[in-house]
């Protein structure tokens, strides 16, 4: 939609947007021999959110003295790009805003912080100015979805999502499947606060250096997704759901091992995931480039028991203790509140 064609609505006094983090659980087809590349599997989770408010101001002001310089710079760039693209019809006198940051998804942890930062601010600015723009419109304008559409879909829908990857010259992948995630299931997240996943230019370079993904592995992932992962989700069969996740992750993780130093980015997280596997758990995964690892379990009780076991396992090295979190899915997506 062109900015001058956007329907103008009542201008708001303030807009608050809160969006969930997401887990990226693998790509369907990195081989791309039939014309589409990537295709992603993912889940919105309720453990972390990005939340911010915008309101009119005399000059651009970002209100949070604790923000990292990198995050502050990102917000400034998103603000600038919004008004250069989908918001360029907004008079310059109205482009100055106060941005109040309430919550942030940890950066470079594999939880989709960059996409959610762009979409929360973009959505808030669009609502503030009364511009009717879809999340896909905003994602295209703000440069998100170049590989995965999971963060875009979970912003709108929450839950469990699969996208269809990208054709040549396509900028945002289509949603193939969306389903609410079982309310009782939990994800035990294993986070390494001393390690970051590959990101930015290093991520682009890593993709360029990786060998061609074997076609038979792409076929295996698609087979596992369609005939085990999704049926198990529909039937709420956590064991077979977990088995499918683990097999998909093994194929993906081993392909990326040369770029990230092993099947998992963080040795600390890797040790915990291996221990969970020894304890009989299925559903062993790393989200995106990590370092966040996750184990899919059937209930809060199972999650608490596993966390206790992993805390005991890592107790010998208190200085390098990972952070363990029991997370439920977020089946709602972004929440938008406006004050007129």
Task: Give structural notes.
With 340 residues, the chain is α+β, with helices and mostly antiparallel strands. It has 9 helices and 11 strands. Strands 1, 2, 3, 4, 5, 6 and 11 form a 7-stranded mixed β-sheet that branches. A 4-stranded antiparallel β-sheet has the order 8-9-7-10.
Comma- or semicolon-separated keywords:
4-stranded antiparallel sheet; 7-stranded mixed sheet; globular; 340 residues; 11 strands; alpha+beta
β-strand number: 11
Count of DSSP helices? 9
- How would you classify the helix and strand content by structural class? alpha+beta
Q: In percent, how helical is the residue content?
A: 25-40%
Tell me about the largest β-sheet: 7 strands, mixed
Shape summary? globular
Specify Rg, calculated over alpha carbons: 20 Å
Kindly report how far apart the N and C termini lie: 25 Å
Low-confidence stretches: 1-10
Report the portion of residues in β strands: 15-25%
Sequence-ordered SSE layout with sheet pairings:
Elements: E1 14-29, E2 38-56, E3 61-63, H1 69-84, E4 97-103, H2 113-128, H3 135-142, H4 150-157, E5 160-163, E6 175-179, E7 186-191, H5 200-209, H6 215-234, H7 238-260, H8 267-278, E8 284-286, E9 293-297, H9 300-314, E10 323-327, E11 335-339
Parallel strand pairs: 3-4
Antiparallel strand pairs: 1-2, 1-11, 2-4, 2-5, 5-6, 7-9, 7-10, 8-9
Helix pairs in contact: 1-2, 2-3, 6-7
In a nutshell, what does this entry contain?
The protein has 340 residues and is an alpha+beta fold. Helices cover 38% and strands 23% of the residues. The two termini are 25 Å apart.
């Amino acid at each position: 939609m062109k900015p001058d064609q956007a329907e103008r609505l009542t201008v708001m006094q303030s807009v608050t947007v809160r969006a969930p983090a997401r887990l990226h659980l693998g790509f369907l087809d990195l081989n791309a021999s039939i014309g589409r590349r990537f295709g992603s599997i993912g889940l919105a989770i309720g453990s972390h959110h990005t939340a911010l408010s915008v309101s009119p101001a005399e000059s651009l002001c970002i209100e949070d003295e604790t923000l990292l310089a990198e995050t502050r710079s990102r917000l400034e760039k998103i603000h600038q790009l919004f008004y250069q693209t989908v918001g360029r019809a907004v008079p310059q006198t109205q482009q100055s805003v106060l941005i109040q940051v309430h919550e942030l998804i940890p950066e470079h942890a594999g939880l989709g912080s960059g996409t959610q930062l762009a979409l929360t601010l973009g959505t808030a600015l669009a609502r503030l100015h009364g511009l009717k723009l879809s999340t896909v419109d905003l994602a295209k304008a703000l440069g998100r979805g170049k590989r995965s559409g999971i963060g875009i879909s979970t912003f709108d829908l929450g839950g469990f999502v699969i996208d269809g990857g990208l054709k040549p010259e396509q900028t945002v992948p289509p949603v193939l499947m969306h389903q609410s995630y079982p309310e009782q299931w939990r994800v035990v997240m294993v986070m390494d606060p001393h390690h970051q996943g590959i990101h930015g230019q290093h991520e682009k370079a890593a993709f360029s250096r990786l060998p061609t993904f074997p076609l038979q592995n792409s076929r295996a992932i698609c087979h596992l997704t369609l005939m085990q992962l999704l049926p198990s989700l529909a039937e709420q069969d956590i064991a077979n759901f977990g088995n499918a996740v683990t097999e998909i992750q093994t194929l993906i993780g081993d392909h990326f091992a040369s770029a990230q130093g092993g099947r998992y980015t963080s040795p600390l997280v890797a040790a915990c995931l291996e221990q969970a596997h020894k304890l009989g758990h299925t559903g062993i995964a790393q989200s995106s480039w990590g370092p966040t690892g996750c184990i899919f379990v059937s209930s809060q009780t199972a999650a608490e028991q596993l966390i206790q076991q992993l805390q005991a396992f890592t107790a010998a090295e208190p200085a390098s203790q990972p952070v363990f979190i029991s997370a439920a899915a977020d089946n709602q997506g972004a929440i938008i509140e406006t004050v007129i």
